[in-house]
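Standup notes
- DV: blocked on the single-chain target, sequence here:
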Amino acid sequence: MKNFSSILITIFAFMFWTFRLITTILYTIGVDFMAMPIDITMEVPLLFITFICICYIIKRKLLPTIIYLISHFLYYGLYLYQSLTVNTLTLNNYMDLFFAIIGISIPLATFFDILLDKNRKSHPVDKQTDWFYKNKNYDRKIDERADRNQYRTLDK
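- DV (later): unblocked, structure below
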């Protein structure tokens, strides 16, 4: 994850996850907040799935990104479709609609970011540490130098 855009997308995903976590906690204890969970029984498993997927997205894995995208499309996409087909919307519905659009756009941006990342496929390992850990020639040079050290001793 060397691109600044990848770092920003991951930070936004984590911030949105934190916001949804706070929203869910406040909803369960009965505090009125600016947004409410769409479906509390699906919100809690979605929070767990999202957290696990974000941890693997940091490692640039494609399968968790697809799971992250599909789960958010199923959760927020259905609500977005239902909201757009209804003619009357209240202020709370507009807020939920706004957060549903964010909930779809972040996984979509993450998916395209990882899909179009050239370094993920061409360099699956980190070059900054490979020269040390996976370089047998470096180990041989160190061993050969160590064997040829002939220090003179002062024999009187």
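- Follow-up: The chain has seven helices and no strands.
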